[in-house]
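Section 4.2 – Deliverable D4.2 (structural model, holo form)

The reporting period included a commitment to supply a predicted holo structure for the target in complex with zinc ion. Inputs used:
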Amino acid sequence: VSKPITENVQNALKIEGTDISITLSASSFIEREDWFYTLSRTVTEHTRGSVVFNSCSGEARDRLHLSLGEKAPTLVPVSQVMMCMNCTSDFSLTLRRHHCHGCGRIVCRSCSRNRYPLKYMKDRMAKVCDHCYNELKKRGGETLLSSNNLT
Ligand SMILES: [Zn+2]
Ligand SMILES: [Zn+2]
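Output (structure tokens):
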């Protein structure tokens, strides 16, 4: 499942199988995102069930992606990381390591400037990397939008 960048179709969603490839067009951005998450999860679960050697990193990232901010992440061991996992600048005595509380990755100071209330920390403000911040902000906005649609 992927989100193709097409000029003529808005909110497109592409599903590629071993012998089929479908491109869907959702009626709204939110609907497309909804489909995307549902399909991605289904694919992940399917892969987990049928593949003996599961690709740990991709799978873990998918699960993490879905539960961002809801569970404490597995913190990446500091000693193994020599550069920022976001912008790849090398750590040094002056460039210190910072843990992102959203995904557990180690990023530099400039990539962890943002704070966001995380569910697993009882909505306390926690340091998150730029990537998580954007993701959480986007999701927060979507939740607001969809609850408005329901009422
Ligand atoms: Zn960085
Ligand atoms: Zn993060």
